[in-house]
Amino acid sequence: MQPVKSLLAYFSFSERLLWSCSVLFILVSFWLFGGQGWLTLTASLIGATSLLFIAKGNPVGQLLTVVFSLLYGYISLTFRYYGEMITYLGMTAPMAVAALVSWLRHPYKGDRAQVQVNRLAAKEPGLLALLTAAVTGVFYFILAAFGTANLLPSTLSVATSFAAVYLTCRRSPWYALAYAANDVVLVCLWVLAAMENPGYISVVVCFVMFLANDIYGFISWRRMGQRQAAGC
Length: 232
What we know:
The chain is mainly alpha-helical. 79% of the residues lie in helices and 3% in strands. The protein has a two-stranded antiparallel sheet with strand order 1-2. The longest helix is centred in the last third of the chain and has 29 residues, at 201-229.
């Protein structure tokens, strides 16, 4: 019972409310629209939970991201979203492992439960733009060769995903806005899928809730960076 109380105390009221609403909407959409199996539901709940820990700068969030990436990669395969499958299994999952290592190596004042917020170097945004363009260009031809459904938004998802995982590894608050952009793309992708199979509506709701969590994550990291800069 004590660990549960400690976990509840770790999160603020607004964070607990955000997580509860995310879980509620995911569950309701799953039951109403006949979600694509328990695997989809499990992935959605793990993903929502991971975002809450990441918003706190806690490395546990990266560990949960690895699990989510594996499950989501398989779910994407079921609708021939090969871009999503390749992105999450070949990029997001490995980069989440790299981020986990980076976060554990850079705790704030020795606190393993909070990462040290990092400021990007002046030239780094330019480097990120070049790397993102290169990765996106390569992936476009790979996805086209696989006959990926909805090729253009799938390719855009690769771009936003790469930017997000790069910024996550670099411990930058901007990771959250990159993931928010990715969430918007994914909502569009799964809306297209849901038009063919209503069972995917639960996935749409999942990423709408992810969008809300990532917006909060950006706000949380900005505040965390300010507290750390003030030595709090």
